[in-house]
Write a structure and sequence with these properties.
- The chain is of the alpha/beta class and 217 residues long.
- The strands form 2 sheets. Strands 6-7-8-3-9-10 form a 6-stranded mixed beta sheet, sandwiched between helices.
- It binds adenosine-5'-triphosphate and magnesium ion.
- The site of adenosine-5'-triphosphate has 12 residues, from strand 2 and helix 1.
Amino acid sequence: MIHVHEVCKEFGPVKALDRVSLRIEAGERVALVGTNGSGKTTLLRALVGLTRVTGRITIGGHEVAREPEKALSLLAYIPQVSPALDAPVQVVAETIASLRNVSVDAIQAHAESLGLPYREVASSRFRDLSGGMRQKFLAALALAAEAPILVADEPTASLDAPSREAFFRAVSARGASSTFVLCSHRAEEVERLVTRVVELREGRIVRDERVAGTGAP
Ligand SMILES: Nc1ncnc2c1ncn2[C@@H]1O[C@H](COP(=O)(O)OP(=O)(O)OP(=O)(O)O)[C@@H](O)[C@H]1O
Ligand SMILES: [Mg+2]
């Protein structure tokens, strides 16, 4: 499903990704772990076409750099850092709903199940929401897209405990054939959501192993 081949990324003298190769099959639930600055976000951003890299990344057989629309139609992404959008929440929801061909109702339902009072915040500027509220809304947008691959970068870092549980349930409710790629520092998240852990250190993969986790709560 996802094929990363010999991917490198340098920021000046920093090798953020150093010849990373990785295959993730459909239905796998994978966590990228590693210390701050080890390259996790850079790898996810490369996967979703936001960072230009050398090497080759394909999703569902389509190369991200050459056929981004085909490759990325299979994927939804929850970023680590929220974009500073001036648009009201409702407008963001309508725009994403139209782009992803889903209903605003579906986004609203996911937002509410994560504990975000959608109607109350619909007219607020997205950037004025609290950090946790923004994270819930971004998760709702990604979950509503019902893409076969969900890529999530520290998706519960700002969530309170009940919302974190709700997010775990929502991920677990995705079908067995859906693929999940997570960046996380939270042991609980890794244990409960994934069945494979890939560790990065200084831009290289230093561990890639199956874990006993059920991949479900
Ligand atoms: N846009 C950028 N410009 C310059 N350096 C960058 C940029 N993005 C990332 N880096 C550097 O690349 C390295 C990897 O960063 P990355 O954000 O991928 O780490 P991470 O594993 O996601 O860390 P964290 O756990 O803190 O989220 C770091 O040394 C970082 O400073
Ligand atoms: Mg990161």
